[in-house]
Amino acid sequence: MRLEKKEGTPATSVPLVAKRTIDVECGSMTYTRARDETVDFSINFFFTGTQLVVKKGSGIKGVADVAGKLVGAAKASTGEKNLRASQPKADVVLFPDHSAGLLALEQGRIVAYVSDGILLAGLIAKAKNPKDYEVLRDFLAKDPYACMVPENDSKWRDFVNHTFMELIDNGKCFELYEKWFGERGVVPYPMSEKVRNYMIMQSMPE
Fold first, then answer.
1. Which of 9, 45, 91, 189 sits CB 3.0–4.6 Å from 181 for a disulfide?
2. pLDDT tens digits, 191-206
3. 187: burial class by Cβ within 10 Å (0-12, 13-18, 19+)?
């Protein structure tokens, strides 16, 4: 099997998989029923939720506080969808990617940016002044990640799923998570016991 990487965004990844331009997408893609009409998904490999990031001292404590204010989101992302559903009065500003959104927040062109909590944590970690930002605790919605694969290819989907199950069974999945997202990881985002148990329950017997 030959590995070839291709870049994608929330707006382009689904069409790329649907047209079989790429065979699998295993990034920060939320498994939704709407997307499942176009592509198929693997079992879940990560769990997070839609959250807002703001500058410290902004006075914004939750989604209720962004009514009538400029809030950024990545185009065609679940963050955009969940923001519009949670706060219809927010003035949504769309960006081509998350980096552009955080830059707008840094420059004061928006008062908040919405995305998956883990992505926001990663963006802040790479920011010029990470301590200037805070991710609001409340989830606007849940965001379970799964790999996208082309529709109606059960053998390929089984291969992806069985690979994940093997990593869950031998513990490698949790070792990798701890390395990157544990309390001392590159982007701290500890896995809860509830999520760990759910991951284990996804693995089927041989």
1. 189
2. 989 999 999 999 999 8
3. middle
